[in-house]
Amino acid sequence: MDRIGSCLPKSCLLLLGGARGVVGSPWEGPERDAYKYGDPVELEYAQAFSCLLLPAHPPDGVRIRPFLVTEDHIRKGKRGEDWYSSMAFKSLVGLPVDEEARDTKCILMFTIDELDNIKSDLSDMVNGFVDSCGACSFTLGGAVLNRLLAKGRNPIKGRVICTGFCFSGDAVRSASALLVQGTCGAEAVERELSRLKRDSGFEGWKRGSTVAFMFASVKRGSRLHHRPNVEADAFARVFPGVPLVGLFDSWQIGNEYVPHLSGKQPGKGKRKAPVSYLHERATIIVLLSLGSSEFIGRCP
């Protein structure tokens, strides 16, 4: 981690996670005024490193808020069962509150798998926060990792349990799709991604400022489709030139959300299941555009 941090400005917040496998788009260098990426690659079983650099000074209409939950923050004790949905918890760890929470367009959330009871404790934290902001009012994507490290300008006290970024502002656009266990095979995956492209109005997005995230179950990939790179290849066909960054692990965090269709989606309002944002055999695809900002990513 220190080695990677030495390559970045001292003020940069570095988040480093360990997963079963990674997804990335090889960077082929600048071409005229745009960045060119190769077709995305799913590395389910090989050692690899995939990264994304976010701008320190976002363009007008874009706000990027990092958040960080340590071990001390999740010890509810006398704080009550609604601790994760409280203003106190959100303010303490850096999650958006009040007007910024209502303006949130996308949240990327990563946590570790070392909680005492991962299914109940994690769902309490994720669902408690999401529901307090209004169920399905923004795209949510992330994963449960086996390792999670963070390094910032100031020393971080205690073990990091959960971290990520919140994106808000008028210039931010985001949409997501949830590929469930029954979505099997190249044609089915491409059909769902084409629906996401159509329903999100993606043709009107600025391509150079758009990146996509893929959070997939280790039980999908070649195990489900019987050949490698099926979902990444389908993504490249539907969204050519858009960089794809992601990972494979046991649990996924996310929802299916298209802003102008939110009122028609079954997740709107009261949740039917207590773990609706925590998945075990799914792939979450998140599209994110940050106005006029340019993304730089690598997958060596």
Number of separate domains: 1
- Radius of gyration in whole Å, from Cα? 18 Å
Kindly estimate the percentage of residues that lie in beta strands according to DSSP.
Answer: 25-35%
pLDDT under 50 segments (min length 5)?
264-275, 296-300
Report on this model:
- The protein is globular.
- The C terminus is likely disordered.
- β3 and β4 form a beta hairpin.
- It has a 6-stranded mixed β-sheet, covered by helices on one side. Strands 7-11-8-9-15-16 form a 6-stranded mixed β-sheet. It has a two-stranded antiparallel ribbon with strand order 1-10.
- It has one domain.
- The protein is of the alpha+beta class.
- The chain contains 7 helices and 18 strands.
